[in-house]
Design a protein that fits this description.
The protein is of the alpha/beta class and 218 residues long. The protein is built from six helices and 14 strands. The chain has one domain (2-212): Ribonuclease Z/Hydroxyacylglutathione hydrolase-like (Metallo-beta-lactamase, Chain A, 4-Layer Sandwich), CATH 3.60.15.
Length: 218
Amino acid sequence: MKVESLNVNMMCENTYVVYDETGECVVIDCGCKSEAECESLAALIESRQLTVRHLLCTHLHLDHTFGNAFMRERYGVSAEASEADHLLAEMCHYQAIAFGIPDEEAEMETPLYTLKDGETVRFGETELEIIATPGHSPGGVSFYNKAEGVLFSGDTLMKNAIGATNLPGGRKSKLLKSIKERLMTLPDSTVVMPGHGEVTTIGEERANNPYLQDEGKA
């Protein structure tokens, strides 16, 4: 499995292209907002001669979904997200206010396909397990490739940080529960590819993330 990323939009979001030797790929959290960002993503996909099989969303905040319409139009793939996050797609007006952008730049279709905890997304010879990690959003999910020990955590877990919980549907206690009970059970060597910021590992976050210490220090 190979992973390439683009850092995009005003929120410095990480958009991932994940593929294997078969040439099939998934795009995770397509936050490409400008035409130039969208074309950079297309150039990456096309230069590697990849076939896009899935457009996966860890959650439906705008900075992770700006490029969904582009992906549908260019590659014929529809967004896939947890059903619990579908309400966020219907709240584009409020998200636009929060992001300080015009309504017309915040349009988002409700995903056609639903991601469910414990199920598997397959492309080529690769599998990604869906892990429900709500808290940053009502239906946040992470994607885990056990064979190579790689986790795509969205905004659930980041280097020395966790996702914000002051957006609609966010709840800190639920987010911490998701991280501690669903992600901290993974091996320390697991590589964590977050929605923002640098790559880290489960072990590094277990040892150094200030939010994951005992409740008195959280």
